[in-house]
Structures are given as C-alpha cells and as structure tokens.
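User: Quick one: structure for sequence A, then sequence B.

Assistant: Sequence A:
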Amino acid sequence: MAAIIPNFVFYILAFLIPLIISGVGMPLLKRLMLKKGKYGIDVHKKEKPKVAEMGGIMILLSIVLTTIILIFLVDTNLEKMVLGAFALTLLVAGVIGIIDDFYRLSGILKPVLLLIASAPIIIMGLIQSGVFVPNPQLPLIGETNLTIVYWILLPFVITVTSNAANMLDVFNGSLATTSMIVLFFTFFTNMIIKGDLQTFDITYVLILMMIGTLVIFWTYNKYPAKVFAGDTGSLTVGAALGAIAILGRLEVVVIIAMIPFIMNGFGIISSVRGLFERSEMARPTRMTKDWKIASTGNSKAPITLVGLIVQDGPLNEKDVVKAFNILTIVSGIFALLIAVLIRITLGGIS
C-alpha cells in the first residue's frame, strides 16, 4: 500500500476534497466574474443571458490544492511524482487557457503551446522511473515496446485531448457530462486491466479528483448554464484526460472512450483543412424560430458532431447534449470490451 491511510479512505478523500473546494469556490468565482464583466452571451437562448466565464479556474484550483494535500498522504516518491506531474500538467494547460480567454490565441499557436503541457510528465519521468511506462498495452498484442516513438508522441497526446475537449465544449453541460462519462468508464477499464481496488493505484485517485470537481462544475454549467468553463476549463479537463491515459497506462482505452471528442475534432480540422478559432470559421448550426439547433447547410462550415446529429432535423439544446452523452456511453462500452481483451491478452483472465 502506498498511502499512510486505508485505500478506501484515500479514494474518498480524493473525491471529496475537490468537491468541497469547488462547491465553496464556484459561487464566489461566478459572482466575481460577473462583477468584473467577464461573461459570455449564451447564444443558444432566446433571452441571450449573460453567463459568468472562466469557471475552469475553479476546476484547476481545486485539483492543484487537492494534489498538494494528497502528496502529504502518500508515502512513496513514485506516487508523489505522479500527483505532481498530473497537477503541473493541468496547471500549464490551464494557464494557456487563461491566456486564451483573455487574449484569444490563434488556432495554430494554442495547440503548439499545449505541447509544453506534457513537460511536467516528461521531466518527472526522467527523474523518477515508473511515472509513466512507454509500453502501451494493446488487445491481442499485449505490451508493446515503443520507447523512442512513445517519447516523441507523448506531447501530442495532451495537445490532442485538450483541443478535442475544447472543441466539444459548445453547449450547456456538454463538457462536464461527456468528460465524467469518459472518466467513469476509465475507472472501470483500469479495474479490469489491473485488478480490483485492494491494491493502491494512484490512477483511481486522479480519476476521482476530476470527477469530484466536475460534479460541482456540472451543477453550474448544466442547462441553463450559470457558468461557462472557458478555454481555461476545457483545456484543463482535456489535459487531465490525456494525463490520466499516460500516467495510468490507459492510452488505448481512453482514446476509445473519447471517440466522440476525437471525431468532432478531426471532422473540424479535416473539413476546414487547418487549425482555426471558432470565430474564424463559418457556423455549422443556426437557431430556428422556435429556438432549436439546426444545420446551416453551409458548405464552407466545418463538419462537427452536432452538425451530423441535427442533419435529420432541428433539436433543442438538451437533446443535442443527450446525443453527445449517448455516443460517449457507447464509446465507453467499447472501451470496456477493449479492456477485457487487453486483460485476456496479458493473461489476467482465463
């Protein structure tokens, strides 16, 4: 056991501490943002309400503070390093998000800067063996040996997951619910591949921390939203999903669980043939007279997941988010099946 308290108590704390910090801090942040005039207009509502921006600051703060507390409750350098690498990765991504929320980075500069977010994981990996293992586990193949290639690809994992989350954060609750679904299935795929909860595993801690803070964020971001994540939040959450994949040796299953995120991002980038900010692209959807979301039919607009969902007819915002959630659940089920195949391949299930 790598914690100075029982496993289940540690896991409960990993969930409750960010939950409490976010629960106390989110309403304060909301009032501060509205007071300072940092708000966005919810264009999908007839009333065009003003919604507090940059709620992701509280997601980031709760994870950093929780990590500092938990570092004192683990008794091995490896777990301390993993927690530190995770928090610092999110901190770098979150700071890039804060800069983007204030100054609007270009569609190319933002992903380039996000390559830096992987630096804490790389540095910690050089200092402490075992922080991450450059040997992804694949179904029917087992453990691969991609040491050099893995080090090269590692920075792009954080960039891809961060931008994918950013591109899917377009409706009330969409980022929070889809991310929690991915985390939920990641928790159980980790259990399938590595075994039960009896042996302490820091991967569960990372997952539970994110779920804890996202539960509170969801209560403020769900329809009708009172707080937007901003790029601060979406880049932080996306970086967390990528970091969990790397630090938990769950690269394949996390990618599978994030298929809707990746499909949406790939569709946008491939259709516009480059990296652009939303304001630089034609809108793929429009609001109907009865305030439902419909496709614009504009051939110059990017191909998006929501554009595909409303092809058969307009939907209200709640139904679009529900469709996102269903697709993510389906992807999560596939991730579970892949986890079973990996476990069988590794000889864990007879």
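Sequence B:
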Amino acid sequence: MLGAGPVVVGTLTDRHFLQTFTNQNPHTLCDAVELRVDLLGLNSHWIEEGRRIERLGIPALATLRLNAEGGKWDHPDNDRLRFLKEAVDELSGVDVELQSRIAPEICSYAHQHHKACIISFHDFHQTPPLADLIDTIQRAQAIASVVKISAMANSEQDVNTLASLLKMQWETPLCVIAMGPLGTESRVRFPQIGSCLTYGYLDTPAAPGQLAAHDLKQRLSA
C-alpha cells in the first residue's frame, strides 16, 4: 500500500453504495478503501465486495470500530476476532484500536499473512498532551504496520501539537488526523508533511471534519 506519497483512503459506510462502488471508476476516487463493517453491517456482503475492490488493484481494509472510539461495535471485543481474521485472509489488512485486548493477536495474525494491521487511537473530545501522544505511538508501533492517531482539535495549538508528531522519527509509518472544523485542512496538510494516510468519505462523512475522498485525491495531486 505505502509508497513515496500519501495514500488517500476512502471510507465506505453505506451498504447500498458499497454494492455499486466498483462501477464508479473507483481509481479516480481514492487509493485504498476502508470498509467500516460496524456501520455497513455484518450481513452487507462486505467480504465479497471487498474482494471485488481488491481485484481492481485497490487495497481494501476492514474496520469494526468499537463504540468507545466512535464506532458502532457494541458486542464483546473478542467477538470481532473471527471477522477480523477473515478480513486478513481475504483483504489487504485491518484496523484495530490500541486499547483493544485483541490488538496483539490480530496484528500477529496479519504479520504472519503479510497483511497490514493499522493500530489506531481516537479521542473525539480533545487532543491529549504531546507526551501522552508520544507514549501512545511508542506502544502502538511495537505491534503495528501503521500507527494512526486521530484527535479532536479544539484550538490551533492542538493542530500544531498533532503536526509536531510528524516531525519526529518513528520506527513505523504514522498517520495523523486532526478532527473537527479546525482540523479539516489538516487532512490535506498533514499528508504533505509526512502522514502516510489520509481519510476521506466515499458516501457519508464518518468523522468530524472529514472531506470527500475524491477532493482529497485531487488536491494532493495538484
């Protein structure tokens, strides 16, 4: 997935749009696709549609986001394990939260199968202090293929704090996102200063301040 430039990940949340996505010239919309299975639903044929996306040469990632980090998965955490392993078997990778007890196991499974495991951290209320963010990244990179930090920006200083993470040296590729209205432009600026991924929506925004994936792709190309 990762190359010389940032990867625009298009987030899919609507099951009807999912079924028609491969007919919409998807290469012009994004570089990779995130299947938000917690929003699409387990009965949305997400694996089959993910395989169709992969056959077009577009990496597909599966996410069953915990409700504690802004998602809709409210079942026991361990119940996600078999679905995430199935995603590793069939798709390019998965996203799992650092706080999840299954994170080490699913990352190990992904590494064994030469697939990506994004270890993510989300704070929808604030941007934690820089020292806490550094500690989070250091813990995540011990198991991750990519570390993703996404925090709410309530001030320009919050945006600057998150940007400063991209000026540091890390053992693992880093994705940083500032959420909220103040962070909207960070989805374009942060990839220009080192964020390996940036996320945009393909159907409906899945996070505060999220831009359309095709807009991100056009702006970064320009």
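The mean pLDDT is 94. The CA atoms of residues 23 and 204 lie 18 Å apart.

User: Thanks, that's what I needed.
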